[in-house]
Amino acid sequence: MLVxxxxxxxxxxxxxxxxxxxxxxADNATxxxxxxxxxxxERAADAATVQFDMTVAAVGxxxxxxxxxxxxxxxxxxxxxxxxxxxxxxxxxxxxxGGAVEILVDTDAGVVYLGADELGGLLPVDxxxxxxxLAELADATGQSFDDLNGQFAVDPADAAAALLDAESVTEIxxxxxxxxxxxxxxVTLDIAAALAAVPQPDPSVGAPQVGDLDLxxxxxxxxxxxxxxxxxxxxxxxxxxxxSLSLVMNVFSTDEPLDLELPSGDDVxxxxxxxxx
Length: 277
Known about the structure:
- By secondary structure, the protein is of the alpha+beta class.
- The chain has helices at about 1-20, 35-45, 135-140, 145-150, 155-160, 190-195, 270-275, and strands spanning about 50-60, 60-70, 75-80, 90, 90-95, 100-105, 110-115, 130-135, 170-175, 180-190, 220-225, 230-240, 245-255, 270.
């Protein structure tokens, strides 16, 4: 649950950057000064494709690394989660799981695909992917399809609307990240307002809520912006539910479409019926 909270807070953090950037607009990005915080945030939200990698670390629990890409125009995304020590004891992964999970999401169709390679032959058929039809799952469980679908497609731009009162933005100064010249900013925001903008599972069906965690009132996001006003890195450290949680996410935006072909046919085993039986 802490990992879910961390990912949600990243989404609202990018939204906070957009909302807190004042009157600048990225609509005329060529006229903006270099290292523009407003342009960087909006470009990350509006880019055709956003690639990212992140590491979530919880002291005493373990680390999770996530690499992914989101094609905003096609409404598809790809995530690879390395669950590391969360799935094993010491250096040994749990039986049947290699520690890495690949996820493909077709937001427009409301279908999620999970890689089956790491399931160690647990499927009744020889398929490379498991699929979940979120519309059927929502109908069977009484959840809202939009809320359920939103769990796999958090849009940072949606979060910005709830973050117009971000408490402060501070320019820290120039720093270099992996050879890239950047300017470092800090954005402080209200956690409750931020999480209110993020879709969560329906509490009426007993699903855990990120907002139920013991979170601080505010969080400080560190944000790095490149000279051509591209979002380069976002990080934060918080104490949540008695755990110290840290996250670092590197971001790379592009106008090129994501090279992703969704699986189909015999390559997919539909798990929806078993979950809604």
